[in-house]
Amino acid sequence: MDCIFCKIVEGAIPSKKVFENEHVVAFHDIQPAAPVHILIIPKKHISSMNDVESEDWYLLGEIHSAAQQIAREQGVAETGYRLINNCGPDSGQVVFHIHYHLLGGEKLGALNAR
């Protein structure tokens, strides 16, 4: 498999990690869209939210728990942050290994849903 995030999990590609436990790893995005831009991924390869199966649901909880801790440690928990998962090419998903973007550190613009 040629998944860049799996290679980060394996340690074959370096990253600036901010969190790691048995199931999840989080690291700084190399092209940040906000002053705080952290990617949170499960260590298990799952291509997208559409591929999460019932035995993997605990990973979503692990990701959200990590997001809370990271937001506190990055100093954005009180002022606010955005936690985003893009699913599929029309959403902007580029790396097909489920991941969440934790964005904060400034006032973020409104999401314009139609």
TrEMBL record:
Keyword Disulfide bond attributed: no
Keywords carried by this UniProt record: Hydrolase
SUPFAM superfamilies with a match to the protein in the record: HIT-like
An MF annotation (GO) of this entry: hydrolase activity
Pfam families hit by this protein: HIT
Protein name as catalogued: Hydrolase
Upper lineage: Bacteria, Bacillati, Bacillota, Bacilli, Bacillales
